[in-house]
């Protein structure tokens, strides 16, 4: 799905291409303290959750260096880091800057540079898993705070930099239980930023709603036996029906996608079959095949209709086939991006002052933001990555360091504005 989107956008981006000539050479990048920190963070292989303790140590060092208070919460064992810069008016609702330390596996395929090397190439690209998703954002937050402190800027509102442990696997041991705790409530969060979606043009995207992820595991059953037998009830007949049904639905959604604005991600439901498992030997007809389907529901999709569709696909499989939901988010509220939301107004003003266009979008994927918004807290997905090719979850993930460094100043400007918003609760 993403491939098709990018294909459409690529012709546009040629015309809109920014002046992104590097103002640094490679040695200057290597000496830049923010780059060094990002490099160290990427060198921690957090695709293995055991190494989250190392990333917690990493964040403690950053907090200590800046004199921020540091706390670790473990609602389900895995560490959640909270670094706090106290505001002058701590009674006001605070601002949360959230990102996640975990990264997806490096995937198959050969990386040009080892995925946990943090290698900087001659284009000024820093390579590694998490360079875009989303270690860059975590480091941009802390560097923005460093700049504010260094320039003696004081803020009215308290800022909490939070780092989650398991966003990539759904947040069930991180953000989801955390938002239910007294510790979370005591942070008194009024507004949150979290990871956003990179753009292929001059604008920066702000996502105000996430699509609802559904993942279903179909176990398709049929007649097994000797591989010389050609008879009805072969498990692959069921698999074929399932694939046909899903690809038919997928075609309809691609149709919707191509008739809409290229960044109207909320208009269609994405669907992909991402795992097929089964078989015991080349000459044995299997009795069981497993297919895992991943869907991100359009904002208008009705949950009951989607469930009925999943069931109708199941009903065509027969032979005691089953479907089991691995993930099924039914509710993903939107944050207002209009004049009713003072945080959004402040953000728009800041971006206008910086001369940067912002486009409000529905995020094509899902993140920990769903849990934050579900608590009634306004929260926006945002990244300063623009004019970039999204490499999240792909091999050869990298970040253009020019984009990374410039983005820190965007966060500085945003924090100066948003953290000094007056009390508008009364
Ligand atoms: C791009 O920006 C650099 C640095 O700001 C400047 O020196 C250069 O002239 C610009 N190039 C173009 C084509 O605008
Ligand atoms: C910040 O404050 C300190 C102490 O008052 C001062 O020495 C320093 O020059 C100030 N820095 C800036 C950038 O204003
Ligand atoms: C379905 O499962 C039941 C109970 O395990 C079994 O008796 C029946 O033979 C199965 N039917 C098919 C078509 O496999």
TrEMBL record:
Pfam families hit by this protein: M20_dimer (PF07687), Peptidase_M20 (PF01546)
Cofactor(s) listed in the protein's UniProt record: Zn(2+)
Subcellular location: Cytoplasm
SUPFAM superfamilies, per database record: Bacterial exopeptidase dimerisation domain, Zn-dependent exopeptidases
Entry keyword annotation includes Oxidoreductase: no
The species this protein was found in: Euphydryas editha
Protein name: N-acyl-aliphatic-L-amino acid amidohydrolase
Top-level lineage group: Eukaryota
Residues annotated to bind Zn(2+) 1: 100, 133, 195
Active site: residue positions: 102, 167
Primary site of residence: cytoplasm
Recorded GO CC terms: cytoplasm
Cofactor remark from the record: Binds 2 Zn(2+) ions per subunit.
Alphabetized InterPro entries for the sequence: Aminoacylase-1_M20A (IPR052083), ArgE/DapE_CS (IPR001261), Bact_exopeptidase_dim_dom (IPR036264), N-acyl_aa_amidohydrolase (IPR010159), Peptidase_M20 (IPR002933), Peptidase_M20_dimer (IPR011650)
GO biological process: amino acid metabolic process
Domain Peptidase M20 dimerisation positions: 215-319
Binding site for Zn(2+) 2: 133, 168, 393
């Amino acid at each position: 799905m993403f491939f098709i989107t990018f294909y459409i956008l690529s012709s546009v981006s040629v015309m809109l291409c920014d002046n992104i000539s590097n103002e640094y050479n490679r040695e200057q990048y290597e000496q830049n303290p923010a780059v060094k920190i990002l490099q160290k963070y990427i060198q921690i292989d957090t695709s293995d959750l055991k190494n989250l303790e190392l990333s917690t140590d990493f964040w403690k060092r950053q907090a200590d260096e800046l004199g921020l208070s540091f706390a670790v919460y473990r609602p389900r064992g895995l560490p959640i880091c909270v670094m706090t810069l106290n505001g002058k008016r701590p009674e006001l609702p605070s601002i949360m800057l959230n990102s996640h330390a975990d990264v997806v596996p490096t995937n198959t395929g050969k990386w040009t540079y080892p995925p946990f090397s943090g290698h900087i190439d001659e284009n000024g690209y820093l390579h590694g898993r998490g360079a875009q998703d989303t270690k860059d954002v975590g480091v941009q937050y802390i560097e923005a705070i460093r700049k504010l402190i260094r320039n003696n800027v004081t803020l009215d509102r308290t800022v909490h930099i939070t780092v989650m442990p398991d966003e990539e696997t759904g947040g069930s041991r991180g953000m989801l239980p955390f938002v239910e705790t007294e510790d979370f409530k005591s942070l008194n969060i009024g507004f949150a930023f979290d990871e956003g979606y990179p753009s292929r043009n001059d604008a920066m995207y702000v996502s105000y709603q996430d699509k609802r992820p559904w993942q279903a595991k179909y176990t398709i059953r049929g007649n097994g036996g000797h591989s010389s037998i050609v008879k009805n009830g072969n498990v692959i007949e069921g698999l074929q029906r399932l694939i046909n049904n899903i690809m038919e639905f997928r075609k309809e959604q691609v149709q919707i996608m191509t008739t809409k604005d290229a960044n109207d991600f909320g208009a269609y439901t994405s669907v992909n079959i991402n795992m097929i498992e089964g078989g015991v030997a080349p000459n044995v007809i299997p009795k069981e095949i497993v297919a895992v389907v991943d869907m991100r529901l359009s904002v208008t999709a009705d949950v009951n209709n989607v469930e009925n569709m999943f069931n109708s696909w199941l009903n065509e499989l027969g032979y005691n086939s089953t479907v089991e939901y691995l993930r099924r988010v039914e509710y993903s509220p939107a944050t207002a991006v209009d004049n009713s939301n003072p945080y959004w107004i402040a953000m728009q003003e800041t971006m206008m002052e910086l001369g940067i266009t912002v486009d409000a979008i529905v995020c094509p994927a899902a993140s920990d933001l769903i849990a934050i918004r579900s608590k009634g807290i306004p929260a926006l997905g945002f990244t300063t990555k623009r004019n970039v090719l999204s490499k999240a979850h792909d091999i050869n993930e990298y970040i253009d360091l020019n984009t990374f460094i410039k983005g820190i100043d965007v966060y500085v400007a945003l924090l100066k504005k948003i953290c000094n918003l007056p009390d508008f609760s009364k």
